[in-house]
Amino acid sequence: MTHSTPAIVILGQGSLATARRIQQVYPAAKIHGLAGRVESADCTYQEFGATLRTLYQQDTPIIALCAAGIVIRTLAPLLLEKGAEPAVLAVAEDGSAVVPLLGGLGGVNVMARDIAAALQVAPAITTSGELRFGTCLLNPPSGYALADIESGKRFVSDLLAGHSVRIEGAAPWLDQAQLPQDPQAQRSIHVSSAQREARADELLIYPRSVAVAVSAEVADLPNAVRDALHQANVAVQSLACLVASDTEMASANLRAAAFELGVPLRFVAVQGDLQALTRVALPEANVICLDSVAIAIAGQPLDVSQIGRPRGRLAVIGLGPGAAELMVPAVKAELARATDVLGYETYVRMAGPFRDDQVQHCTDNREEMQRARHAFRLAVEGRSVIVVSSGDPGVFAMAAAVLEALHETDDPAWHSVDLEILPGVSASLATAAQAGAPLGHDFCVMSLSDNLKPWTIIEKRLDLAAEADLALAFYNPISRARPWQLGRALEIVAQHRTPQTPVVLGRDIGRPGQTLRTTTLGALTPDQVDMRTMVLIGSSTTCTFPRAEGGDWVYTPRWYGEKPIG
């Protein structure tokens, strides 16, 4: 079965109704619509092939509402070396056909059946094992792990050839399967957490029913866990998670061990020996205590989400200027995993759409420190929290406020939170890119708002930056509360620049209704600018020349003084 949220990709408006019906099966899935051809999609993309290949490489299940051949030709370059692959399905635009294409071991046929049921059609399943037995033996459900895929393929081939099978252990998902069962069969499906060598006539499936309590002080922790499991005759494949005391939540050693072993890391509010840890985490389990770890074995697969809690995470993200295609992939991935999203309401809305289980905490734009402290309080509970900024979070935005909130506290729980700052495309860089390269040499970024710093400091910095012949980028250039300050700023810059100095005005760049205009320092007046305008003032070397389609290119050359020869 698939463990990831799928992406629903459509090419035209005619597919949207079918896509919405599929979305009812996967409420967290987003509908990706081709820009300019699809209205009301959850997000847009510019190029079908690049989008599909990116999703595939990110291991995202794909539901493409188009001809199967288009999907096959698009993904063919990525299929030369077949390894783990996400589920890929083609669905007719009108919902009349559901065709699983790739990802037999990724639950593609389960998805095909679910989608087909919602669309009230028959799925076009061609996998021999699934057609014969009604289940994919090589893709056990969540909570179970197959021992070996290659021997598993041979095992299924034997059953298809007519051999019967018996089931040893608890395999409730096979109760409704049409397997040729016989208590005396030579071939068996063995379900157990015990460590054993697979015979040629059996299929080994391990329930993920084992948790191991560990300490960050143990050297070479991954091998210590493997050795302990071997000593206890427990299969490594049955390991569901590592458990540790929440006093060790910030340990890099624990994180590295969990990553190497490929299991989640959970924390319990217990100090003391490892046996006490396991008793609190899994009170009903059988516990084996060894020198460096304690092994807890449950009678069925573990629901890891009910064991202790994870390390809380706080990510401060930058959405970029507003266009979805200018949001960096790491930020998109963070938004998908978040439980809570905090920020100024306008920016939170830009970050959506959100799933029903994602909690939005919208606040006023002036409540940065309260927002930062609230984010830490949520993260300490083990939640995955996002603080949203537009542009880049480190440019006049929330990253500094979050770090300040952390700096001012000595609460160890706050300092144990997994904190990460994820960059975004800043408004100055987005505007510069639209204009050409006006910031192509050294430049200075300044906010003209005096809410958090005295105007005397702003004037001093303006004078020095202009004297240094730096290109200038102005954030927060003007507002109703301070209508005179931009005029004063231009007076200061004009003491060091000629009236012909190029100026770029970018309003709402990256958002609907964006405008870009080129003028000069001498022609610029404050009434041409509002709070949503980015003002870029060139240096003495900044140049302009006409674009073929109208308007101007603006750039500041990388050389300074006389142009270099050659």
Keywords:
17 helices, alpha/beta, 5 domains, 566 residues, Rossmann fold
Please outline the helices and strands.
Layout lengths: L6 E4 L5 H10 L4 E5 L8 E3 L2 H10 L4 E4 L2 H8 L12 E4 L6 E5 L5 H12 L8 H6 L10 E3 L2 H12 L4 E4 L18 E5 L10 E6 L2 E4 L7 H11 L7 E7 L6 H10 L3 E4 L5 H8 L4 E4 L4 E4 L15 E6 L10 H9 L2 E5 H7 L7 E5 L4 H13 L3 E6 L8 H10 L4 H4 L2 E5 L4 H9 E2 L5 E5 L7 H13 L3 E5 L9 H10 L7 E6 L7 E6 L12 E5 L5 E4 L5 E4 L11
Helix pairs in contact: 1-4, 12-13, 16-17
- The CATH architecture of the largest domain comes to 2-Layer Sandwich
Termini Cα gap: 61 Å
Global geometry: globular
* pLDDT < 50 stretches: none
User: Which CATH C-level class of the largest domain is it?
Assistant: Alpha Beta
Oligomeric status: single chain
Say which CATH homologous superfamily of the largest domain is assigned: Tetrapyrrole methylase, C-terminal domain
Main β-sheet, spatial strand arrangement:
3-2-1-4-5-6
Briefly note the structural class of the backbone.
Answer: alpha/beta
Strand fraction equals 15-25%
CATH topology of the largest domain: Methyltransferase, Cobalt-precorrin-4 Transmethylase, Domain 2
Radius of gyration from the alpha-carbon trace, in angstroms: 29 Å
Question: Which percent bin holds the helix content?
Answer: 25-40%
Tally of strands: 28
Total domains: 5
Query: How would you state the average pLDDT, rounded?
Result: 90
Taking the sheet with the most strands, its summary is: 6 strands, mixed
What does this protein structure show overall?
The structure is a single chain. The model has no long low-confidence stretch (mean pLDDT 90). This protein has 566 residues and is of the alpha/beta class. Helices cover 29% and strands 23% of the residues. The chain has five domains: 7-126, Rossmann fold; 144-207, no CATH class; 210-306, Nucleotidyltransferase, domain 5, CATH 3.30.420; 313-425, Tetrapyrrole methylase, N-terminal domain (Cobalt-precorrin-4 Transmethylase, domain 1), CATH 3.40.1010.10; 429-555, Methyltransferase, Cobalt-precorrin-4 Transmethylase, Domain 2, CATH 3.30.950. The radius of gyration is 29 Å and the shape is globular. It contains 17 helices and 28 strands. A six-stranded mixed β-sheet has the order 3-2-1-4-5-6, sandwiched between helices. It has a five-stranded mixed β-sheet with strand order 13-12-11-15-14, with helices on both faces. Strand 5 (88-91) and strand 6 (98-102) form a beta hairpin. This is Precorrin-3B C(17)-methyltransferase. Pathway: Cofactor biosynthesis; adenosylcobalamin biosynthesis. Residues 51-129 form the Cobalamin synthesis G N-terminal domain. Pfam families: CbiG_N, TP_methylase. InterPro entries: 4pyrrol_Mease, 4pyrrol_Methylase_sf, 4pyrrole_Mease_sub1, 4pyrrole_Mease_sub2, CbiG_N, Cbl_synth_CobJ/CibH_dom, GbiG_N_sf, Precorrin_MeTrfase.
